[in-house]
Design a protein that fits this description.
The complex is a heterodimer of chains A (124) and B (142). Chain A contains five helices and no strands. Helices cover 79% and strands 0% of the residues of chain A. Chain A has a single domain, classed as Monooxygenase (Up-down Bundle), CATH 1.20.1280.20. With 124 residues, chain A is an all-alpha fold. In chain A, helix 2 runs antiparallel to helix 5, helix 3 runs parallel beside helix 5 and helix 4 runs antiparallel to helix 5. The radius of gyration of chain A is 18 Å and the shape is globular. The termini of chain A are far apart. Chain B has 142 residues and is α+β, with helices and mostly antiparallel strands. Chain B has a single domain, classed as Alpha-Beta Complex (Sufe protein. Chain: A), CATH 3.90.1010. A three-stranded antiparallel beta sheet of chain B has the order 1-2-3. The chains are: A mainly alpha (124), B alpha+beta (142). Chains A and B meet through helix 3 and helix 5 of A and strand 1, strand 2 and helix 5 of B. Chain A: Belongs to the HscB family. Chain A: This is HSC20 protein. Chain A: Keywords: Chaperone, Cytoplasm, Mitochondrion. Chain A: GO terms for molecular function: ATPase activator activity; protein-folding chaperone binding. Chain A: InterPro entries: HscB, HscB_C_sf, HscB_oligo_C, J_dom_sf.
Chain lengths: 124, 142
């Protein structure tokens, strides 16, 4: 019985740690704690510049593997993620939860790109 | 991975994923081409759908590019198939529920079909705006 409780708590602690470690999941959790749901509605017209950028990076990533381009994309994604993390932090600090929600939605697109990049780098 | 362990992926989705129809782009600067670019913030999927409309208001060609899960790819692939041959107004009637039913999408993937419906509407709205920018502005102000 004690082992069961230990396993449960250990698993929970791991989950908590992973959630808080990653800026995106951390931000989404903070939204949840404040009773704000993460963005659900389709992004369209208002965000077409942003979506075009995401589309273009995706298209570059879909091209045959090229070390230089991959490095370029990796740097770009990292820079954008750092920028967004700073902006999200600032939004939370001034209690602008709606802005934080918007920014976290943007971070999700970049998180996906990061994953795709990682998969691309794995030797096939 | 977009395949949940223990859940069978509907063969319809696999089919569109392995044999996607109409992948590509149309000339977004052409007056008779409407471009819809949409994103799903919850999962980070992006979808671009384009339609080419003839002088009679009929959609003669459609292309899509989707970066996301298999269900999103299948939904947009099916959408391009369905809009071809329809008039602009007919295409506006396409519902996400029809797409989801055709692809046998599980509840957790229903938002993918919604994204495809939004992409169709965005593409058609863009086309309409290009035909009559003044009218578009007037409608916005109304």
């Amino acid at each position: 019985k004690e082992q069961y409780y230990s396993e449960q708590h250990s698993s929970l602690i791991n989950k908590a740690y992973q959630t808080l470690l990653n800026p995106l999941s951390r931000g989404l959790y903070l939204l949840e704690l404040n009773g704000v749901e993460p963005a659900q509605e389709t992004d369209c017209d208002a965000d077409s510049v942003f979506l075009t950028e995401i589309m273009e990076i995706n298209e570059k990533l879909a091209e045959p593997k090229n070390e230089d381009i991959l490095e370029e994309i990796e740097t770009l994604i990292k820079v954008k993620q750092e920028e967004l993390t700073k902006e999200v932090t600032a939004a939370f600090e001034r209690d602008d939860l709606q802005e934080a929600k918007k920014l976290l939605a943007k971070m999700k697109y970049f998180a996906n790109l990061e994953d795709k990049l990682k998969n691309k780098k794995i030797p096939s | 991975a977009w395949v949940a362990v223990g859940d069978a992926v509907p063969w319809q989705v696999v089919d569109h994923y392995e044999n996607p129809r109409n992948v590509g782009s149309l000339d977004r600067n052409a007056k008779n081409v409407g471009t819809g670019l949409v994103g799903a913030p919850a999962c980070g999927d992006v979808m671009k759908l384009q339609v080419e409309v003839d002088e009679n208001g009929k959609i003669v060609d459609a292309r899509f590019k989707t970066f996301g899960c298999g269900s999103a790819i299948a939904s947009s692939s099916l959408a391009t198939e369905w809009v071809k041959g329809k008039t602009v107004d007919e295409a506006l009637q396409i519902k996400n529920t029809d797409i989801a039913k055709e692809l046998c999408l599980p509840p957790v993937k229903l938002h993918c079909s919604m994204l495809a419906e939004d992409a169709i509407k965005a593409a058609l709205a863009d086309y309409k705006l290009k035909q009559d920018p003044n009218k578009g502005e007037a409608e916005k102000k109304a």
